[in-house]
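I'll show an entry:

:::
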Amino acid sequence: MYCLCLLLFFFVLAIHNWHGDVTHGLALDVGDCVEILEETAYWFRGTCPRKPRKVGLFPKSYIHLKDLSKVDPVVAECTLVLREWSEIWKRLFVEREEYKFTSLRKVMLALLESRRELLSSTLTQDQTYELQMKVISKIDWGNR
């Protein structure tokens, strides 16, 4: 079984589509974040934030564990926020809330660009700090 400390240091991501074709299976799409609750030799039992209240099984081979302790925490947070906001952005499109849709799109594109710059490792320490503060500010704005 995975403990909470593992989930804090690993970003768990579906790398293949899984239709959940087994009893109590949890269907996953490529790119889904996954919370691991239990582990066996070949399977995980967990949940996906995109499908709240649904817990199920999926193969270990369909999941990638990325060690976040080696990634800049602002970049990691930006990645998680962009995944979360993409669901909101899709809903705004479907509900035809054009102003909110456009506003969120602009902020998401700015975050993607900032994330790219932070990952490039070409900035000075001062530039990195300044960009991290801008990213945090945009995330705070979007979470209101």
